[in-house]
Sequence to fold (616 residues):
Amino acid sequence: MMENASPGKRMFVLTLELSLLLFLTVLVYQQVGGFDFISMDDPVYVTENPYVNRGFTVEGIRWALDFGHDSGPYWMPVTMISHMADSAFFGLDAGRHHVHNVVLHLLNIVLLFVFFYKATGDYGKSLFISALFALHPLNVESVAWVTGRKNLLSTFFLLLTLLAYLAYVKRKNLSRYLVVLVFYILGLASKASVIPLIFSLLLLDIWPLYRFLLEKDDGTVRLSVFNRRNIAPVLEKIPLLLVTGLVLYLNFSRAAFVHEATPMDRVGMDLRVANALVAYVVYMFQAVWPLNLSVHYPYLESLSLWKTVPALLILSGVSVAALFNFKRRPWFFVGWFFFIGNLVMVSGVIQGGLWPAHADRFMYVPAIGLFILIAWLGSEKLKGSAAWGAAIVFCLFLAGLSPVRVADWKDSVTLYRKALDVNPDDMVSTVNLAFALDKAGQAKEALPYYEKIAERYPAYAEVHANMAVILAEQGRTDRARHHFEQAVERAPKSVAAWFNKGLFHQRLKEAENASVCFAKVLELKPDHTEALQSLAAIHIENRHYDRAAALYKEALGHMPGAGLSIRYNLACVYAMNHETGQALDTLQGIVADGFARLDLLLTDQPLAPIRRTEGF
Fold:
């Protein structure tokens, strides 16, 4: 086949088939250009991050490079600067941010193929591994989620590191080693999860680079890592290890990481280890049968022995088989431990924030190890056209599933609905769906989910507050009143809860209760202009015009820009208080500044006292 073809024909076929793979990948992901941002982390990383959504700024670059900033638990300057670039060129056009992710995925496919082809010389298996990587539904999360950029970028630099390492192994010199080091640092600066790369390089030194080889007769190899002649591949990793230690220290010492780290008294080490064992087996199953995927898999409060013991036996069994088959099948050893080793960082033994039981995004790199096993084991069991046929069928199976999975990421509502289809008891997705529906203007649909959350987590103040607003809009006053009381009782420092409760009382003409609520808002946030205006409106109803005017003036002091609507209301207060001169001067000022609602000057009742005066 390809091995016997001329170099020109080989290059033509290679380019054609790789181009077809990239084209198929584009077809799988072409719909993301019309997708929205997702409520999970996208606001933190992009849409509501003032350092990022303004594009390139000196302040933003300094923030991204600073180890001490508290925007998140990890140091990822390359990733954050990448998001800044998107904001600079595309604004907050979500579709273009998504397309950038697809481009990075396409580049990773090419780099992965080039690496395996150069390292093994096996065209067919290299193409098959790249196809699995390109089309697998497990990788959809990293590509179709804007925040998945960190996975894509870190993998991009990881693969460049591997290619640079290949070049270094072929001809060792300082300049080539420095290239390896630079790409590795860029990978760390994209996402710290590339740290297992050092372990991966040692595995690749075993196979396919055979740098620890003492014998190679008839396809067998003998490993001797500690032989004096073979110590160089180990010593070469020391500079990489030093850089890794520095990045680990700086990440783990960050205030945000310390704040988000899950304490042992909440999730004990026994549960973390048990969950990690089960997760490894789940990943193995999903690699060959990727159905019922979800954005969130709930972390269970306990795991029974009938789950953890079989998982331990499966992992131990495969590991022993990999060790015993090392001489005859070194790819088995390397592929298996590549999968195991690259998942350690995200296994949950060390965890922070709302950690899932497992996550599709965690498999973007580790799955390559399983793909090695599938490719080499498959070619051992199947020969010739049967091997190619099986590979094509499996790739088409994945290519058929992935567009469906991609469509789940269209928007937050679609994404969390799918998560609840997979696991109806997933409370994290229930919360996210409720908020997503509410934000999308589907309050009626959100209410049942809020009720379910409130029943399960009665102390969830924001849920009570949101329920109260929806119930008030539906005219269910008594229930709304109850949930407003619950909201401010459970979150007495929530500005939003107090403000919405104030609006609720104001609509019911309960001026005294409303005033108390707005006063509480201003106690918590003195520059809350809406509360100042709402309190002013109450004083107007009570004909306390001087107090109302003072509040409007205070609101203007906190208002950027012209504040035309506030100034108009202030003019109305002056008119009602028979301060004709000040009213006319204020109206003249807002008209000069571009006040567009000139019809109000002729029809609004508060201006009636001055409408016939000279100068109006």
In short: The chain is about 65% helix and 0% strand. The two ends are 92 Å apart (CA to CA). Strands lie at 213-217, 220-223.
